[in-house]
User: Fold this.
Amino acid sequence: MKIDLKSIKPDIVFDGGDLDCGSGLILLIRENMLTVPENGILEMKSREPTVGVDLPPWCRMSGHLYLGLIEGDGHTRYFVQKGDSQQESEALENDKNRARDYQWRLRARSTGHLKTTIYTRNFSYNIGQAASFEEKDSHPCALEYLFGALAGSLSTGFATQCARGGLEVDDIEISLTGTLNNILAHMGLEEGDPSVKEIQVKCFASTFDDEGKVAAAWQKTIERSPISATLSKAATIDYRLVFV
Assistant:
């Protein structure tokens, strides 16, 4: 029997933004499913195309009934009928525990002059020396990867936060500058503190949406970034959001 999805009145609706099933979306689905009554219906909006492939088999394995999808303007609406609530509650707690205990692993190997190769998951990338202020090098220095990790975390996180809030942001670009307390201490030329002193982050966002809501999404992004939360304990970070 074919279900008329357009006639469905879901019990709970939430926006998964551009998250995929492997980056926290399943946890959000389980969390929202707890508030759905037995045999009730959850509607999830998503902008991530792989969800259409991954969601149906996940529903089968977790005891829920996948009802189908409706393509929308810039997002897809997915409908899931709730199955065993006790099973869902236990599964959510298990997923949360696995997430809390997850360890990121990598290997680093010296592979040449001023060159180290990092191996993690299905990726490998090269890092040069710890810090460099030459105009050109064969590989980015470790500090550039550190600062790049912060900028990347904020850029991707901001786009995801806006998507989950239903905010249309056409373009996001981040500029970052960083300084050390004493680069000469790192080089062994004098005594001192070689740590990061200050980071200035400026995010440029192009949007016709409510700037107050976009600014709130930016603030949430900063607060939820593991890289930002860690670096802010050691250095002064100045964050600015500019609408263009």
Observations:
- The radius of gyration is 22 Å.
- The helical segments are 21-33, 51-62, 85-101, 142-164, 183-186, 211-224, 226-231.
- The beta strands are 12-15, 41-46, 65-71, 76-81, 107-112, 115-120, 123-127, 169-180, 196-207, 236-243.
- The first strand starts at residue 12 and ends at 15.
